[in-house]
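**Reference record**
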Amino acid sequence: MAEVPRTTDGDGTPVPQRLLAAATRLFAERGYDRTSVQEIVEAAGVTKGALYHYFGSKDDLLHEVYARVLRLQQERLDRFANADEPVDKRLRDAAADVVVTTIENLDDAMIFFRSMHHLSPEKNKQVRAERRRYHEQFRALVEEGQKEGVFSTATPADLVVDYHFGSVHHLSTWYRPDGPLTPQQVADHLADLLLRALRP
């Protein structure tokens, strides 16, 4: 893959990152539908031609806002799932990590869940498939622990996964960086709740 060209002015941040940062800020402040392409390029200090070169459309920008977080989470889940550790440790690490990475990218998550319906049907389908892959791999850890007798089989693995991700998707409605809990503390509490729910 060719290296992303760097800008020659400003702080040297590559154009795609500048566009994404500007789009994320504006989508979070105003909403996706109330943000124009012109406002994004002005905030990023680039031309419309640059935006269309890298992203093709505003829809592509919205997709990338979420896709970059999902890519990060998928890479990390792959690492946890394949680690040489007992299944309860691997699941706990994965459960805590998705909370921390969601909080660290809260604007992206909030924008996405608020604006996902604006995506084209094709991109909507693509994102759903990417999310499904993540959820299925997470569920496989629960099922592995259930088969080994480490986790209870009283609750179906699907429900366990939905329960945890319901909490994750709800973070943007209540978590505040200046609140009493750090991202890691929230992650530890939610991961411990999940593990307690799975105890035989």
Observations:
- Residues 1-9 have pLDDT under 50 and may be disordered.
